[in-house]
Design brief:
The protein has 174 residues and is mainly α. Helix 1 runs antiparallel to helix 2, helix 2 runs antiparallel to helix 3 and helix 3 packs parallel to helix 4. The protein is rod-shaped, with a radius of gyration of 41 Å. 9% of the residues are buried.
Length: 174
């Protein structure tokens, strides 16, 4: 009885994780086989118990019991074979899912790296260009030319520095 409960628990676990229709179908077949085997096992047990209680001992009774036991063995073998197929199908499905997830993660990671590099290059280029312009304006002021205004159209750190340079230029020009 404990073996049947363990098989049913394992089957329920496989069925709950199954996503492919073939795996679910095989699990349903296996459940049906488990029920058949349980039924035959109970019948064989009741038959043997009945023989013992009635004191029936003879070739016909033993032959009938052996036939029932052989049928039960065949069903257990079929159930075992089906169980291996269900497990194998489930593992193939899990393996395919894992490979698909890895492939998807690699593609997404590659795209994110490319986008990050592109954004970083663009932002750093923009900042560098404005710093170079500010540096050239400082060189012009350092050479004594206070007539050229410093262009500024941003409010970030480089823009604040440019605004302060422009204020300094205007005060020095006055």
């Amino acid at each position: 009885q404990a073996a049947f409960e363990e098989m049913e628990t394992n089957l329920a676990d496989i069925t709950s994780k199954a996503e492919l229709p073939e795996v679910k179908e095989n699990a349903a077949k296996m459940k049906t086989k488990i029920e058949e085997v349980k039924k035959n096992a109970n019948a064989a047990y009741q038959f043997r118990t009945s023989m013992e209680q009635n004191g029936i001992v003879g070739n016909n009774a033993l032959n009938a019991f052996e036939k029932s036991a052989d049928e039960l063995d065949a069903q257990v073998y079929a159930m075992s074979k089906l169980s291996r197929k269900v497990s194998s199908d489930a593992m193939v499905a899990v393996d395919e899912d894992v490979h698909n997830e890895i492939y998807t993660n690699v593609i997404i990671s590659a795209i994110m790296i490319i986008v990050t590099l592109g954004v970083g290059y663009s932002v750093s280029g923009s900042i560098s260009k404005r710093i170079v312009e500010l540096s050239k304006a400082a060189e012009v002021i350092a050479s004594g030319d206070l007539t050229k205004p410093i262009k500024n159209n941003s409010s970030d750190e480089v823009g604040v520095a440019a605004a302060n340079f422009e204020i300094m230029r205007q005060r020095m020009h006055e």
